[in-house]
User: Fold this.
Amino acid sequence: MQYLIYILVYPIIWLISILPFRLLYFFSDCIYILVYYVIGYRKKIVRENIALALPHLSEAERSQIEKKFFHHLCDTFLEMAKTLTISNKEIESRYKFTNFDVYLELEKKQKSIALVCAHYASYEWAVSMNLYIQHRGVGIYKRIRNKYFDKLVRDIRSRFKAHLVTTKSTIPTIRDNYLNKVLCVYGFASDQSPKLESTFHWGSFMGMEVPMHTGAEMLAKKYDMNVVFMQTRKVKRGYYEATFKLLSENTQEVPNYEITDRFMKLVEAQILEAPEYYLWTHKRWKHRRPNTN
Assistant:
């Protein structure tokens, strides 16, 4: 059954990937109408999340953010499909780095790097940074149940020399690379909610006290990695800019969880600047402390 679904869907994904961008976004507009007005995909969750995180806005303002978010979500899905066939030249023109020298200075330290980012703007096209780096790029992702689509996602994200490892393989991979002196940059999208049983730290995010993912910080401390935040901004439809912000070099000297808190504050600032580009479909605040908002 998995293979049947795959062979039915793959031709559609491939056809989407070869569309010119003008047609791609026209198609995205059509999908938006279906997803938002007909299916109502996770609309209740999105609405609740925006109300929780942005209570200072009026209902009309939050409604506008909701609609803009679903437009962006459809764009993001199709842009991911586009990655299947997009050329290096095209993605270089659409995903730019404002201060790549900050990252390159970290490579000169001859230590591996933990790169943390949020599910914001175009986190899929961030893999294009592998076109410019010397360290081995390693992306951490959650395995998809359908093994054929899992391979497709790995193939798409590996087009730009990215090596993918599953969340379960992350620690052994980092340990082995550290022991073998293989310099890597590890990509962590660490803004979503962890499982309660694996929570070590609670912190403030959008005015609520919630559990935080601390894996990137703890692994950076254990394996002596520098930590940098990749902040992405949507310039206009189909065009993005990424800026690197150093979070820590001597991570072992920083008090526990301080790096994580710095990261989440930067994510919060991103959201407040343009909330429509955050991934609102996940239940990020489902485990918030009862004495908060």
